[in-house]
Amino acid sequence: MPDLDEATLAPAQAELLAAMRAGPRGAGLSLRGPFGVFMHAPAFGALAQALGAHCRFGTSIPPRLSEFAILVTARFWRAHYEWHVHAPIAAKAGVKPATIADLKAGRTPARARADEKAVHAFVTELYAKKRVSDRTYARVHKLFGDAGMVELAGILGYYALVAMTLDVFRVPVPEGEPLPFTEPTI
């Protein structure tokens, strides 16, 4: 996708950018990452960014576990930009550096907290098998309840959308930043 210049945005694009900057992501939001791609289809982008704002800032899932689930998603999809953005957020939210390093390396985090291990099992099972076992579901349901389970599924769906968007359009990490994953990509 070609980069857009804020000075030449179409009215619908300018409206979308203003809405994103007025929301919880803040005034500093740039046209990088998935939002730069979403700007090319502003009606879709408006819906996607509103869902994303809710998934990131409005659910009952604690930020540490939400960001942990986002990292598992970014690693699964090898979404470099998503990882680049969310790894520091996850660390700030309380995910231990060793846990982040394990996820980045594609390992099951051995020393993660019990709730993180439950979320990891849920996310990886869902992505690998396209569903989760009753046992895995029950473990996570004990943490989040009914509403939280819906929200967790939504977080995973939204961030899979973001990862696919980043991967399809090959959105790069900022210049000079290393790629988080080294295995070959298509």
TrEMBL record:
Molecular function in Gene Ontology: peroxiredoxin activity
Domain annotation Carboxymuconolactone decarboxylase-like: ranges: 42-117
UniProt source species: Rhodoplanes elegans
Signal sequence extent: none
Highest taxon listed in the record's lineage: Bacteria
Pfam families: CMD
Protein name per its UniProtKB record: Carboxymuconolactone decarboxylase-like domain-containing protein
